[in-house]
Amino acid sequence: MLCRLGAAFSTISSSVPTPPCVRGLSVGRRRSGNEKDFLRVLNDGNSSIGKGEALGVSTLYIVLTSLLAYVARKLAHKFINEPFVRALFLEGIASAELCGTCFELIIVADNFGISTYAVYLFCLTIWWSQNWGDATACPYTHLEDVVQGKASLRVAALKIWAELTGGILIYRYVQLLWSLELVETHEGRAFGECSTDLQIPVPFGALVEGIATCLCRVASKALSDLEPRFGTAIDSFIGTALVVAAFNYSGGYFNPVLATSLKYGCHGNTIIEHIVVYWIGACCGAIASVFVYELPVVQDLVFSNRIKRD
């Protein structure tokens, strides 16, 4: 599942300033050793409390976004009778949920480290797998369907349009939440400038996104055919591991809509470079996975394991 979703990681760091009460104590006279120890403990305690509150607010925003998307899906199923129109709405809702939560995951990664980020991402991918149904929130899954003759190019284009719409519109909602600035980690983020996550030359970035996407999709297809116990968790773990492995190179998005929602127009990449890395790279990797999975050596490996298990 995560292979279709990807994730974001920003390298911007955020520091917690010394609380005013502590700064005030530091002025006017030389401190004794005991006072220095006391101030250090007090400062660490205030910093820890602030960090805990910030993580709590980020968690609240992620849960809120997920619950709103859950309600929106229920309403779509209840009030939209035309199957294809409903499918378009569900793709848009899934993309909005994906991008909305990943915007907040950037805050988590920036301030609480990659380990916390990975735990949150792993849990979210399991949630998405259980709640999205047939929606994917990822353009290249529809291109795969076109290549395999399961869908027309028109259907694929409309679904991609719905996903882009959801992924782009959700930023206004995220801006609203961030503009409240309930915690320090959100200060200045609603209207601040962003920078690219691509840390390597464009051709290598496209290669990273393409190869990782291909590996992820092959793993997902194999797990779908093998139907192992805890298959969703295994798929989420593989995807999370690949995202973490790639974040220092391309950001590890593996999803064109997600990359466009979070990073399109950011400093460091031109429009063409963005498209090459995050659209052409990922989509080529996904299409390649269709043919890689059909290779005799891969099929023998997958189905021999299935026979042994049965």
Task: Give an overview of the whole structure.
The protein is 74% helix and 0% strand. By secondary structure, it is mostly helical. The protein has a single domain, classed as Glycerol uptake facilitator protein. Helix 7 runs antiparallel to helix 8 and helix 9 runs antiparallel to helix 10. The longest helix has 49 residues. 39% of the residues are buried.
Label this structure with key terms.
310 residues, mainly alpha, Glycerol uptake facilitator protein
Task: Itemize the secondary structure elements and their pairings.
Blueprint lengths: L1 H4 L14 H6 L7 H47 L3 H49 L7 H9 L5 H27 L22 H25 L4 H16 L9 H8 L7 H23 L2 H14 L1
Provide a compact summary of the structure:
The protein is an all-alpha fold and 310 residues long.
Shape: globular
The amount of helix comes to: over 70%
Q: Identify low-pLDDT runs.
A: 7-32, 35-46
Mean pLDDT over the full residue set: 85
Rg over CA atoms, rounded to whole Å, is: 22 Å
CATH superfamily membership: Glycerol uptake facilitator protein
The end-to-end distance, rounded to whole angstroms, is 24 Å
Given the helix and strand composition, which structural class is it?
mainly alpha
Sketch the major β-sheet.
Answer: none
What is the strand content? Answer: under 5%
Subcellular location: Membrane
Protein name: Aquaporin
Keywords: Membrane, Repeat, Transmembrane, Transmembrane helix, Transport
GO molecular function, one term: channel activity
